[in-house]
Design brief:
Length: about 325
């Protein structure tokens, strides 16, 4: 891997974000130079800004992680914004990379792109066999457009781009804002705070019946680097652990890690989201040798420990 990355100039959009921070660290460890564009200077919704970024950075590789994203609540509040901004970032970055003759573009889609009732485990060939779950469909569709663009640009222009579809990520440095976060950091914050206050119960969204799959953020970063180095096709590839857990069991596991022994109250007035999520992860292993390595228990323990260590500064935000 080191020989591939040595002295490469790599633009990482979203490099200051949760996943991006770990990707940038791995890239630098491998010997590459990482350029992290700031949205205040390069608003990628603006095509001229995308063009200027590539002209300024002159990258050998672009990894597109930037997104407007959040949990169910954030998706419900921002369907138009999430559709427009994610679609425009992808469309314009692809086109400007093509025009600038960037040697390779790695783009991240989302598990939210899969149909609501896709057969489990989700196989890449099922991406178009139905409409996504309604609460996050605008975001999922916007990100899935990059797959069409990657395939179309490879066919017409010979552009080298790949699109990866990661499952829900978690780990240290995650977003713990209760309104915009995903389920694991939201539960961690709720349980630790309830423990510290001595609360006898915690209210959780939905009825706990959906299942979810999660991938530890450092494993995801490794998968992205392996794909960037070894994979050169516009066939979509899932990134995940291949393990499924019901949200009720997830709550029990996180409560135990957070040392909270109160009860849960499930708020059935809140949406559950997609009924089941588990990826078929065989293609990633076959095509570029990626397998998740971090056990779920170890990943949850590390994420709880991070939140407890930074609780005061997080809670102030």
């Amino acid at each position: 891997m080191a020989s591939f990355w040595q002295d490469k100039q790599v633009v990482v959009t979203g490099g200051a974000g949760f996943l991006g921070g770990f990707v940038v660290e791995r890239i630098r460890q491998a010997g590459a130079r990482a350029v992290i564009p700031r949205s205040a200077e390069y608003d990628l919704v603006d095509r001229a800004a995308a063009r200027r970024l590539l002209a300024d950075a002159r990258p050998d590789l672009v990894i597109h992680l930037a997104a407007q994203v959040g949990g169910i609540g954030a998706n419900l509040d921002n369907p138009g914004r999430f559709l427009f901004e994610n679609a425009m970032m992808g469309l314009q970055l692809f086109e400007e990379c093509r025009l600038a003759k960037i040697p390779k573009l790695v783009a991240l889609g989302t598990i939210c792109a899969y149909p609501k009732f896709a057969p489990v485990p989700f196989k890449e060939d099922d991406l178009w066999n139905g409409y996504p779950e309604e609460t996050n469909a605008p975001y999922g569709i916007a990100k899935k457009m990059m797959l069409v663009q990657s395939q179309g640009y490879r066919e017409q222009y010979g552009m080298n781009s790949i699109v990866l579809f990661p499952v829900n990520l978690y780990g240290p440095r995650d977003n713990f804002d209760l309104h915009t976060s995903h389920v694991i950091p939201a539960m961690i914050r709720k349980f630790v705070s309830a423990r510290d206050r001595g609360d006898s119960e915690v209210v959780l969204w939905g009825d706990g019946s959906p299942t979810r799959e999660f991938l530890y953020v450092e494993d995801a970063a490794e998968g992205i680097l392996l794909a960037a180095e070894r994979y050169d096709s516009s066939d979509p590839v899932n990134l995940g652990s291949g393990e499924e857990i019901p949200v009720r069991d997830l709550a029990q596991k996180i409560a135990k890690a957070a040392r909270y022994d109160g009860r849960f109250v499930w708020d059935n007035s809140k949406p559950n989201g997609q009924p089941r999520r588990r990826l078929d992860v065989s293609r990633a292993k076959e095509r570029f040798g990626f397998e998740a390595r971090t056990s779920f228990d170890r990943g949850i323990a590390a994420t709880v420990a991070y939140y407890e260590e930074h609780q005061k500064e997080i809670d102030k935000k």
